[in-house]
Write a structure and sequence with these properties.
Distance between the termini: 40 Å
Radius of gyration: 14 Å
Strand content: over 45%
Amino acid sequence: QVQLVESGGGLVQAGGSLRLSCAASGSIFSIMRMRWYRQAPGKQRELVAAITTDGRTDYADSVKDRFTISRDNAENTVYLQMNSLKPEDTAVYYCHGRDVRYLNDYWGQGTQVTVSS
């Protein structure tokens, strides 16, 4: 069983930066596709960024050129560097992983990001 634990959320002013981390337990992180989702109050959860097992990345249009997803397989951790934050980035951010061998899905508990104007 894999557990995902996010950290790094908080309150920041518009234009500021935060870096989210998601640490995975277990030994299969290197074969997990990782994603960051977010959910704002009253809205559906949306995909923010994704990274494959070999490091290919993809982003939602709303965060392209501002957010960067990366992974460190030695540390079993995926990161989301968020720059030029906007009030509309305010949401709970969730880490998600899917192992490519058994296609099991794992979710973190979420971390709150609040961007003040």
